[in-house]
Write a structure and sequence with these properties.
- The chain is of the alpha+beta class.
- It folds into 3 domains: 163 residues, Roll (Nuclear Transport Factor 2, Chain: A); 62 residues, no CATH class; 90 residues.
- Helices cover 33% and strands 32% of the residues.
- It is built from 8 helices and 15 strands.
- The strands form 3 sheets. Strands 1, 2, 3, 6, 7, 8 and 9 form a 7-stranded antiparallel beta sheet that branches. The chain has a 5-stranded mixed beta sheet with strand order 11-12-13-14-15. A 3-stranded antiparallel beta sheet has the order 4-5-10, with no helix packed on it.
- Strand 11 and strand 12 form a beta hairpin.
- Helix 5 crosses helix 7 and helix 6 packs across helix 7.
- The longest helix has 20 residues.
- It starts with 6 loop residues before the first strand and ends with a strand.
- The N terminus is likely disordered.
Amino acid sequence: MKSLIPLLLLAAFAIQGCQLNPSEMKRGFEIDEATRNEINDLDMKVFQYVQAGDLNAFNLLSSAAMKAQLATGGQQEVWNRFTNIFMHRSYRVHDEVYVNSLLPGYKLNIKPERDSDNYEFSMATTTREMDVSFLILEDKASEYLLTIMYGKYNGKWLVNGMFVNGYSVLKKTAPAYYARAKELYNGGDLIDAAMCMNICDRIARPCDTFFKYKNITAMEHFGKKVIQEAVDKYPMPYTLNDVNGKPAIFGIQPQQIKGELLPQVNYISKITVADSVALKKENKEVQKAVGRQFPHFKENNTHILYRAFNDLPSDSKIPESYNFIEDTKQ
């Protein structure tokens, strides 16, 4: 399964370090108001500068190590990816942690405040004073977790590192998709379980190795198991031998339609996509075959999308196709 491309802008954070007792570690509203306001103001500036694509302004907020990291190969490409993610999104504060350690190198372990969070965050500090902001970049369809790591240099807060990756799809995080996948799998719906785990995998590591769901190992093992079972049982292309012309399914993927995730069955037809009448007649038989071949698939989806092709799509070319939608409740 292919995860979303992580966009990493880290100043050399060491995972190992001497374990020291911090003189102070606070979270959320435990942080003194002056520090919290200062960091909130920096969060807003970082968001605005990245969203506007203003790298020069962002560099004014960055530490020397951060600038050095940005200066390495691919700077503009990585910066453009950040800008594209930030574009047309707003943000909300998800969490914030402040640490004042005796010396840099304190191994920071952040436990969840709420059982529903179900995550841990760990890393080693690089400055005596450090603050980590967790911001959710949001829209209706998907959310990203933006983690901004600040260090204090000569009394001034500067960005030490920044990481952004997928956090939720339709307001559901990876543990929610994992739980739903287990329900579907136990109910005999292998196809929907595999699709749920595909989404789960894409948003399971919102901050790479630093942010870890407590059940990440179980999620990854279950995901591999379900995907492999689906591949073994339904090798693609999967020919529908009981349909005239033997159309072949080459993929089933989730699509977001009006706030709902719907499966889309992609298949190759020998009928030209220009012949909508014949194609529609064949699709009625494809729908029946899908119901026979994939147990519980229809009962767990209100609608199923179908997309008929004459040729396989590729990265460089998407051939003409014809779309159908099945209302499974009729």
